[in-house]
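Progress note, sequence design subtask.
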């Protein structure tokens, strides 16, 4: 039997066909447009997601007997707002996770309703990307559309609805809406009231590995499959990717060095840090997770090498950085090119180099960029440790993780073992694994991960290097608090210049 994982991304849908043993048989990718109607706005047409997913699945399953496709599941871009009318037709283009129009609504939620209340209701505070602020924006700016709302959906859940006819969501994706009581895994009645939304407008909540239904006759005909194919709830992209890296169970960790960076820590128990530095979400394995998200990770290295130095030879730039230099650099880099989310929650933060002298070299600054990202990841790691979580190793993935030097830095700056995996397919693999669990091929998500995910390399921290980095990290920790007033002043000046 075969299992399809659908990763509904921002620029494309990536589809994966997996057999029961976890072998990736085939992958397909289909792109769709994104629109920016105004500066800071980001929208997509949900019909494009459906049409490209249908085309992708038909291509994916060429040569496969249609009755051998047991299940389909999803990983998807989180937080987006899809609103349907009484006929289940899309009312307006989806407002995406990276849309920045809700500054006013976030200020209202965080300051008027209050971060304490939001944490009590949802375990999180408001960010511009989250779904609840988008609903408030529609209510204020498009009242005619707001009045038409009969169902509120997330991007991947709209796709699942088109396949199954069921309005469903899963606990991990719902956690990122600021409408969900994460601890009790149910909709927050208080938040629905604040947003002026009836509970009837919300989808039924499932665990990520639960079957929500089967392909409708229409969907089965469109996809070239059968109505026996199960549709499994799926997960938000980060939780699905975590399943695909085996980051499940208690205290399991994964670090992603992509354009942005994440540290994802699974936990058997619910927990929230006092400052909401980390997102506290339900996990796709049936338990919980904490996640720190930094807005610029591998993109910092790309910016430094491509735009500033002007080279595409990343490996050559790292050649001169020896073990003796690790933990001995006198240059520090704050990786806040796009502001920062975890743990500072400060869109006004800026990237900086600190500590240069006349003998500072190009290599020193390249090293500082890589170290700055790793130090920033440790900031979120320290928050998790403060909650009593004991983390001794982490998986690592993303484009930046292809650098042996960066992996070594992560191991020594966090002083934990770093594990490299045999395959890296991201949310699409995790989604296929959820489809296998939901159709009974595996009893639990943990069992599927144990069978399918394999470590092929391990980097152990070096005691001497880790000790040197410990001192450097303590110095790094002092830079952001010292510069925060400067960042505020810069933003105030920029704002005043823009008003002239």
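Output:
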């Amino acid at each position: 039997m075969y299992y399809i994982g659908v990763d509904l991304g921002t620029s494309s849908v990536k589809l994966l066909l997996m057999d029961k043993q976890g072998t990736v048989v085939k992958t397909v990718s289909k792109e769709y447009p994104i629109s920016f109607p105004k500066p800071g706005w980001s929208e997509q047409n949900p019909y494009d997601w459906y049409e490209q997913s249908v085309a992708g699945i038909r291509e994916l399953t060429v040569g496969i007997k249609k009755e051998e496709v047991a299940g389909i599941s999803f990983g998807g871009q989180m937080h987006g707002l899809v609103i349907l009318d009484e006929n289940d037709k899309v009312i307006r283009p989806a407002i995406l996770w990276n849309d920045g129009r809700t500054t006013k609504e976030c200020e209202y939620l965080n300051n008027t309703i209050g971060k304490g209340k939001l944490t009590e209701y949802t375990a999180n505070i408001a960010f511009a990307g989250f779904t609840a602020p988008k609903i408030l924006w529609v209510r204020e700016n498009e009242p005619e559309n707001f009045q038409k709302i009969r169902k509120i959906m997330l991007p991947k859940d709209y796709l699942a609805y088109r396949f199954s006819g069921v309005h469903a969501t899963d606990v991990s994706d719902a956690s990122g809406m600021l409408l969900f009581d994460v601890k009790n895994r149910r909709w927050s009645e208080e938040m629905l009231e604040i947003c002026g939304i009836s509970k009837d407008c919300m989808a039924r909540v499932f665990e990520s590995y639960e079957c929500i239904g089967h392909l409708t006759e229409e969907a089965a005909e469109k996809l070239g499959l059968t109505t026996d194919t199960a549709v499994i709830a799926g997960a938000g992209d980060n939780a699905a990717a975590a399943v695909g890296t085996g980051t499940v169970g208690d205290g399991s960790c994964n670090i992603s060095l992509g354009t942005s960076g994440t540290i994802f820590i699974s936990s058997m128990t619910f927990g929230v840090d006092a400052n909401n530095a980390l997102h506290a979400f339900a996990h796709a394995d049936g338990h919980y997770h904490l996640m720190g998200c930094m807005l610029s990770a591998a993109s910092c290295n790309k910016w430094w090498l491509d735009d500033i130095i002007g080279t595409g030879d990343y490996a050559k730039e790292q050649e001169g950085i020896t073990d003796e230099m690790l933990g001995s650099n006198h240059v520090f880099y704050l990786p806040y090119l796009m502001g920062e989310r975890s743990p500072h929650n400060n869109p006004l933060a800026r990237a900086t180099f600190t500590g240069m002298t006349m003998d500072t070299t190009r290599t020193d600054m390249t090293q500082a960029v890589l170290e700055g990202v790793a130090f920033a990841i440790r900031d979120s790691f320290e928050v998790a440790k403060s909650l009593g979580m004991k983390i001794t190793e982490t998986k690592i993935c993303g484009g930046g993780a292809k650098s042996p030097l960066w992996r070594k830095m992560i191991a020594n700056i966090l002083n934990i073992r770093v594990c490299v995996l045999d395959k890296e397919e991201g949310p699409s693999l995790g989604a296929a694994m959820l489809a296998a669990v939901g159709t009974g091929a595996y009893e639990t998500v943990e069992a599927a991960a144990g069978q399918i995910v394999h470590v092929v390399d391990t980097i152990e921290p070096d005691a001497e290097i880790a000790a040197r980095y410990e001192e450097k990290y303590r110095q790094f920790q002092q830079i952001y608090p010292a510069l925060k007033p400067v960042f505020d002043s810069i933003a105030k000046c920029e704002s005043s210049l823009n008003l002239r």
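The CA atoms of residues 400 and 446 lie 27 Å apart. Work on this subtask will continue into the next period as scheduled.
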